[in-house]
Amino acid sequence: MEFDPRQDYHRYMWAPYTQMGDLAEEEPIVAVDGDGATIVDSLGREFIDGHAALWLANAGFGRTEIVEAAAEQMHQLSWFPSFGGMSNDVAVRLAKRLVEMTEPEGMARAFFSSGGSEAVETALKMARQYWKLKGNDRKFKIISRRKAYHGVTFGALSATGVSPNRRLFEPLVPGFRHIEPPYCYRCPYGLEHPGCQLACAEELARTIAFESPDTVAAFIAEPVMGAGGVIVPPDGYWQRVAEICETHDVLLIADEVITGFGRTGEMFGVRHWDVRPDIMVFAKGLTSGYLPLGATLAKEEIFQVCLGRWGEGREFRHGTTYSGHPAASAAALENIRIIEEEGLVDRARELGEYLMRGLSDLEDLPHVGNVDGLGLMARVELVKDKDTREPFPASDLVGLHVNREMLKRGVIMRPLGDVMTLSPPLVISEGELDSILESLRDVLAAL
């Protein structure tokens, strides 16, 4: 049978996070080529990818260096497991490299998986096992935030605070609690920073006290909330969160799946606030999407608690078949080299400032309520009434409409409700950012 990308997409695909019924009359974007910050689809249409696929094409598309590094590794050793005292040399090299990179945060050991959800799942299990082996069986609860996204596996989903993601899969894993996010534009307490006295951070302290500190194992949070709508915390928030966790002997898990490897204008998001977590979680930008890979890094103390002898039951009985896959590890090492040698972290910071100036110019439009961002992570929140911050009715699907209009102009964004988000490859040019901004102004002006 002849291959037809559009017809075969509708006939055979069941796509993630997609209402396939709404796509029957639309042309899917079936990518066939990519270079830098642009992709070409099966119909020959060219798009500026303003979202780096899914927050992750940090080094851009078409990086033959990464492809060749992975291919060379496949020719030499296609795969070998990491279980039971075995591994492969390239995974060991990557573990060493990541520990060296996170020395300021105090990370000491790397545990590999196949992606972000698995990396988060690993971190949650590490936290629970750590406290059980320390003799505190009651210290198992995990606190996260509403609007947080941590993945789709059951533990990661239980930590996730996006309600529509959870409802059809309940009941979820017990022992998870959620607090309000640091969402200043729509502060759940009706306060304004700095007069709020960081009420959103203090809720963590109140929740730990309510649950009892000897029952709370960890607090997990994204440095900048991604799928929740690019929510950048206010000054002082992360420092106060870290202080609360230390005071109550609660592990701090930084979910850097989106913010890691330059996205925010620092190599890792927590560096904006000089915070030292107990566990860090990576994926996405770790390989810039060239191959699936996740990594969970932990402090030496957490690793040491799990040391023992066979038969004692202290080993970390968790792992995935492709943990430390050599080709993925080779891709990660080459990706990290590119990010460092091409100065993409500084580039993200500089272009992020350029992008924010352009987005701020949109605030004169009647339905642009809030513009914010950090590095090459940005948001434009659309509202019905700017003065009252009244949102559009959800049934109006305004964000989806804006997204469709942007696609017609050859720009890929991501609507999270009525928040339009941008997260382009770190190699994007100022000219491409100008094209995005010009198209966005045209679409929003007509809204």
3D architecture notes:
With 447 residues, this protein is of the alpha/beta class. The chain has 2 domains: 5-59 and 343-445, Aspartate Aminotransferase, domain 1 (Alpha-Beta Complex), CATH 3.90.1150; 67-341, Aspartate Aminotransferase, domain 2. 35% of the residues lie in helices and 15% in strands. The protein has 14 helices and 15 strands. The chain has helices spanning 5-12, 52-55, 64-76, 89-101, 116-133, 154-159, 163-166, 199-211, 237-247, 300-305, 326-341, 344-360, 398-408, 430-445; strands spanning 31-35, 38-41, 46-49, 109-113, 141-145, 176-179, 216-221, 251-255, 279-282, 294-298, 368-373, 378-382, 411-412, 414-416, 419-422. The strands form 3 sheets. Strands 4-10-9-8-7-5-6 form a 7-stranded mixed β-sheet, sandwiched between helices. A hairpin with a 2-residue loop joins strand 14 (414-416) and strand 15. Helix 3 (64-76) packs antiparallel against helix 11 (326-341), helix 4 (89-101) runs parallel beside helix 11 and helix 12 (344-360) packs parallel to helix 14 (430-445). The longest helix is centred in the first third of the chain and has 18 residues, at 116-133.
Features of the shown structure:
447 residues, alpha/beta, Aspartate Aminotransferase, domain 1, Aspartate Aminotransferase, domain 2, 2 domains, seven-stranded mixed sheet, four-stranded mixed sheet, 35% helix, globular
